[in-house]
Amino acid sequence: MDLQNLIDGLAAQPFALEYWWIYFMMLTTLLPTFIHLIVAGAAAVMIFPNTWRQFILQNWNERGDAQFGALWYVTIMPALGALGIIVPCLVFYMLCVLFNAHSGMIGSGLLEWARTLSTAFDLLNG
Question: Quick one: 81 exposed, middle or buried, by C-beta within 10 A (0-12, 13-18, 19+)?
Answer without folding.
Answer: middle
